[in-house]
């Protein structure tokens, strides 16, 4: 009987197989880890986007809260007008007096409808869609909401329109910026101040321009580089005892960047502050997909 003696395994080959096996296992683990990390990053990005949306909503509601007092007061005045002229129309039989009463009631009702329409348009969630809008019209819609508040604080309003500038924008978001800047400007001024809103086109490039300027106390130069930082605020407590959250201007900057626009501030202590928005002018036709905003032109 013959016995076949097996040769011992080659140590070098054994090490090679072991190294190959370890390498494959390592590659598999690395791929699995990379996939897991990519999934976590995707989840974090989704959470950040949702938090950004919630911050925008909270800031919007904060602005509505600031306006609530003056709007409530105005609605009370409108109702008083309607009631008084209705009583006058009931008391008098002559046609001229009744016609006057009806005209006043109609005007008051139209004013109330305009305010309500403006508030609903501002509060409406339009998602990320943008359309071609006139910056003049968007500004006028915002001024409907704030004009009584400006009158209450004896702020003069000057509108300087050099062109009917248009841009592809999410109207609710641009109005949110406008309301924020207008309220900031009003709060920065003493009674008797002047607010100037300028709308036009940039002669040096294809930009639509909108600026809000006040005659307030101005912002110190050392604070200017920080005013768009999250939670940074130059506001002190107002008559309600509330100061700024530091979210408003930071969110304004985020919104402008999402629109591929720019926001700039110029200020001089003792003279006032001017915020300027620059937005790409509206395209005539076509659809353009931009960072999270769907532009619908034409």
Report on this model:
Its EC number is 2.7.13.3. Residues 27-41 have a biased composition (Polar residues). Residues 70-283 form the Histidine kinase domain. The protein has 298 residues and is an alpha+beta fold. It has a domain at 129-296: Heat Shock Protein 90, CATH 3.30.565. It has helices at 11-91, 95-123, 135-152, 171-188, 248-258; strands at 129-134, 156-161, 166-169, 194-201, 207-213, 262-268, 272-280, 287-290, 293-296. The strands form two sheets. A five-stranded mixed beta sheet has the order 2-4-5-7-6. The protein has a four-stranded mixed beta sheet with strand order 3-1-9-8. Strand 8 (287-290) and strand 9 form a beta hairpin. Helix 1 (11-91) runs antiparallel to helix 2, helix 1 packs across helix 3 and helix 2 packs across helix 3 (135-152). The longest helix is centred in the first third of the chain and has 81 residues, at 11-91.
Taking the sheet with the most strands, its summary is: 5 strands, mixed
User: How many DSSP-defined strands?
Assistant: 9
Beta fraction:
15-25%
Structural class: alpha+beta
Mean pLDDT: 77
**Amino- and carboxy-terminal Cα gap:** 97 Å
Instruction: Give the class-level CATH name of the domain at 129-296.
Output: Alpha Beta
What is the spatial order of strands in the main beta sheet? 2-4-5-7-6
Give the CATH H-level superfamily of the domain at 129-296: Histidine kinase-like ATPase, C-terminal domain
Biased composition (Basic and acidic residues): 1-18
Organism: Rubinisphaera italica
Domain Histidine kinase: 70-283
Protein name: histidine kinase
């Amino acid at each position: 009987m013959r016995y076949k003696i097996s040769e011992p395994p080659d140590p070098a080959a054994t090490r090679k197989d072991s190294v190959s096996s370890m390498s494959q296992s390592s590659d598999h683990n690395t791929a699995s880890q990379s996939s897991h990390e990519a999934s976590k990053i995707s989840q974090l990005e989704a959470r950040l986007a949702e938090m950004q949306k919630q911050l925008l909503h909270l800031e919007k509601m904060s602005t509505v809260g600031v306006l609530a007092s003056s709007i409530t007061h105005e609605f009370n005045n409108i109702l008083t007008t309607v009631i008084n002229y209705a009583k006058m129309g009931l008391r008098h039989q002559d046609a001229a007096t009744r016609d006057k009463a009806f005209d006043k009631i109609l005007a008051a009702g139209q004013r109330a409808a305009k305010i309500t329409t403006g508030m609903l348009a501002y509060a409406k969630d339009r998602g990320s869609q943008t359309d071609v809008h006139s910056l003049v019209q968007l500004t006028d819609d915002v001024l409907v909401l704030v004009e009584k508040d400006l009158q209450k604080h004896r702020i003069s309003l000057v509108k300087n329109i050099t062109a009917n500038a248009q841009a592809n924008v999410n109207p609710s978001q641009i109005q949110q910026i406008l309301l924020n800047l207008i309220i900031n400007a009003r709060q920065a001024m003493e009674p008797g101040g002047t607010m100037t809103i300028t709308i036009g086109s940039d002669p040096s490039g294809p930009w639509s321009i909108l600026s809000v300027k006040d005659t307030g106390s101005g912002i110190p130069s050392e604070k200017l580089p920080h005013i768009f930082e999250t939670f940074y605020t130059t506001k002190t407590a107002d008559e309600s005892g509330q100061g700024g959250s530091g979210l408003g201007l930071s969110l304004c900057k985020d919104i402008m960047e999402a629109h591929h626009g720019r926001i700039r501030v110029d200020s001089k202590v003792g003279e006032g502050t001017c915020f300027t928005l620059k937005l790409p002018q509206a395209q005539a036709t076509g659809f353009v997909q931009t960072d999270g905003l769907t532009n619908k032109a034409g």
